Amino acid sequence: MLNSSTPKFSLNLTRRVFLLFAFSMIALGSAQEKSHVSELVNLADLSAEFEYDIRYATEHNFIGQVLYDCAQCLLRPEVAEALGKANDYFRQKGYRIKIYDCYRPLDVQKKMWSLVPRASYVGNPYGNGSIHNRGAAVDMTLETLEGCYVEMGTDFDHFGRAAHIDNYNLSEEILANRKLLFEGMQKFGFSPIRTEWWHFSYKRNFDYPVLNTPLPCP
Ligand SMILES: [Zn+2]
Which of 22, 67, 139, 185 could anchor a disulfide with 56, C-beta 3.0 to 4.6 Å? Predict the structure, then answer.
């Protein structure tokens, strides 16, 4: 009896240990997922001084479809804090930041890539992804404190030479507006990319993990 019951006990014990291990791994996985989501903050909770035009929450974007359930700007806390400082800087000069896009879930990146598979315009979701997927990039422009449009040469998500930051074949007014934008953002740790005047990545951005949590709705 002893001999026959011992292996059974061992088997049960092994199974229990395995189940405990499996549940621990699931719990650990979901805890890590939560901790990544909680690493993002809503810019509106930090400051009420930003304007918003979250294009991917509307059909007014290069895909022509609503890609976000809610119009939210989520960012890494240090990125949001730096953006707040940049906005204070612009406000002292009579302008404020208008936000087009912040954190972008990886699934949305995949949808964009399926329609525009050009790495110079859309980060490859099967490669390094976009800094937007890491909550460390912002697409934005400036407007005056009175809400007047500031001309930057093209609309947001214009894919062409006119949007390139090394295109100087523009009016003096546009070049001055872009200079104000780039110099202000660089002071607070943001770098532009060559093909999109509206895009700014925060420093050390590839250290952050890619996220795929949908934008939370209030
Ligand atoms: Zn961007």
Answer: 67
